[in-house]
From TrEMBL:
Residues 14-204 form the KANL3/Tex30 alpha/beta hydrolase-like domain. Gene3D superfamilies: alpha/beta hydrolase (3.40.50.1820). PANTHER family: TESTIS DEVELOPMENT PROTEIN PRTD, TESTIS-EXPRESSED PROTEIN 30. InterPro entries: AB_hydrolase_fold (IPR029058), KANL3/Tex30_Abhydrolase (IPR046879), NSL3/Tex30 (IPR026555). It comes from wastewater metagenome. This is KANL3/Tex30 alpha/beta hydrolase-like domain-containing protein. SUPFAM superfamilies: alpha/beta-Hydrolases (SSF53474).
């Protein structure tokens, strides 16, 4: 199991486990901003890396994600270890692929909540290949934060999916897959990240 990055107060009522996306590690500026903002709001944030990303950190070689069963097994192990260390309310989630993996085990693990930062509803340019079947029956309360210009799922596409009533989708103004807007939109990347933090922190607070 890879090393963790832990942010937030020692007495936090909620611990949220966040996994990274397919191509970037747990300590990207995006992940660091989100983790820092949630920690400042009083939540404990545990970031971890899947085996392939941990190996990249060791040898510097870029490689694709592990098989799904490996990713899910890793997520289960991390959540079990987190619960052993911090009994109490545990939510899970992550960026893109990491959030999707969390969504696949959220009900199984009895997570109090699911937080997804840019869900990959379909591969870019391939809306005919949706990754949403399991979301129709999700019983875990969930918040998906999605950029309005996200090529993995835009508003009109997501509106057509059958999503469980437990899932709330909040749209980040003019944001791409990492919530970055175009300059002409009048929005800023920092502003959108702060919006994401505020929405996420409020969601987690309701789980305590």
């Amino acid at each position: 199991m890879s090393e963790w990055l832990i942010d937030g107060p020692g007495g936090a009522a909620v611990t949220v486990v966040l996994a990274h996306g397919a191509g970037a590690a747990m300590d990207t500026p995006f992940m660091t901003h989100i983790a820092g903002g949630l920690a400042a709001a009083g939540h404990r944030v545990v970031r971890f890396e899947f085996p392939y990303m941990a190996r990249r950190r060791e040898d510097g070689k870029r490689r694709g994600p592990d098989r799904q069963e490996t990713l899910l097994g890793c997520y289960r192990e991390v959540v079990a270890a987190v619960r052993e260390r911090w009994p109490g309310t545990v939510a899970i989630g992550g960026k893109s692929m990491g959030g999707r993996m969390a969504s696949l085990v959220a009900d199984e693990l009895g997570a109090r909540g699911l937080l997804v930062l840019g869900y990959p509803f379909h591969p870019p340019g391939r809306p005919e290949r949706p990754r949403v079947a399991h979301l129709a029956a999700l019983s875990t309360p969930a918040l998906i934060l999605q950029g309005e210009r996200d090529p993995f799922g835009r508003p009109d596409e997501v509106a057509a999916y059958e999503l469980a009533s437990t899932i709330a989708v909040t749209w980040v103004p003019d944001g791409d897959h990492s919530f970055k807007p175009r300059k002409r939109s009048g929005e800023t990347e920092a502003g959108n990240l702060d919006r994401a933090v505020a929405a996420s922190a409020a969601f987690l607070a309701r789980l305590a």
